[in-house]
Amino acid sequence: MNRSLLLLSTVLTCLTVCAQANSKRVIQNDPAKYRSLSAVHAGAGKMGFTELIGRQALSTNFLYLHAGVIEPKSGIGHHFHHSIEEMYVLLSGEAEFTINGHTSRLKAPALVPCKLGDAHAIYNATAQPVKWLNFAVSQVKGRSENFDLGDTRVGAHLDPIPVFVSSQLKREGLRANNTAYPGSGALYRRELGPGVFGTNWNHVDHVVIPAGGSGEPRPVAGIEEVYYVMNGSGTVTINGDSTAVKADDAFFVKVGETLKLSNRGNTELQLLVVGISTDKLQDQGTRKPADKTKGIALQMDFTVTKENSEAFEKMYSSIYVPAMKVQTGYLWSKLLRMFPADVSKSIEAEPTEYNYQVQIAFDTEENRRKWVASEQHKVAWPAAAKLAKAYKWRGYDVAGEDDQR
After folding, report:
1. Is the pTM of this model over 0.85?
2. What is the dotted CATH code of the domain comprising 171-287?
3. How confident is the model at residue 236 (pLDDT cuts 50, 70, 90)?
4. Where are the domains of the chain?
5. Could you tell me which of 26, 42, 244, 351 has the fewest CB atoms within 10 Å of its CB?
6. Cα dihedral 46/52/56/57 (nearest 10)
7. CA distances (Å), origin 30, targets 48, 53, 249, 399
């Protein structure tokens, strides 16, 4: 085989492997794979059930995407969770949704978030089976629990207007020319935002790509997303690798990847999108590079002898911290003690004579300098300096942060 043919073969092999890897993310909601469940959460009747995406698929605290068919006169009983949030989605027919003992009938397509601590249930009072989805996000990755109330909700009083959060995914609510899903005619509505949830659940979006339309490549930063294809067919491209998707497919996009949605068919591609933040900073704008500083930090290195170490650490907590806490603009401080010599050597740390560091943060450099000029500093700094053989300091503008406190 000559060099050109070998190169072409290698490229084709790579493309095939990438496409196969990408296609494994697409999971078909196949009723033939459902298992039958009865009395779910002490509910009435039975349902068909399967898990499409599980707790290990993503790096965030996404817990699962369940799918199924709730049979006539059947449902999921009244129950609640201490540490997870769910969202019931009705894809066909109509059903009775309950949140905290209040029940209303909704027609598909509809969704109801089940927020932390809210008791919830769903019941199909009709003579026809209904299609159902359940998304869940946990406070702690992989953790799931529940408490059943022993209430089927059969014959529950119906409120004509729901007194809980819900959405019926109305097409007229979609808008074009949006920044969330830019592209050729992409329509979008944010059905639920981060303020609805107590977990890292960031958003629930309703997206339509019209026939012949295509979204622009969209970086997924600070979040991960789970997609469910409600109608139509199209192509999803993740990091340049494309895979076909169709109605009742689910797929996901991980943090840092780039997503593009395309529809070369004759009907609309309609998607439900669940976004999960990588942390509690649910406003994605906080993860962009700062256009101005987010405060200042000062690092002070000290060389402290062994006999002065205990006194130095007591000085920090009893003198230095109280003195800073009364200052305007003070944010936080830390006292760092150097690893023991053997640990430092094992991690190949840079050799240094300094064995302590004090980090302090203020909202502005102006306020830090006011602290330096304060009466409290005239007491605190000499208390630190007299316990050290040597010291130095460096100042920084804070350009980004990820504080999990």
Report:
1. no
2. 2.60.120.10
3. very high
4. 27-148, 171-287, 296-397
5. 351
6. -160
7. 11, 13, 9, 48
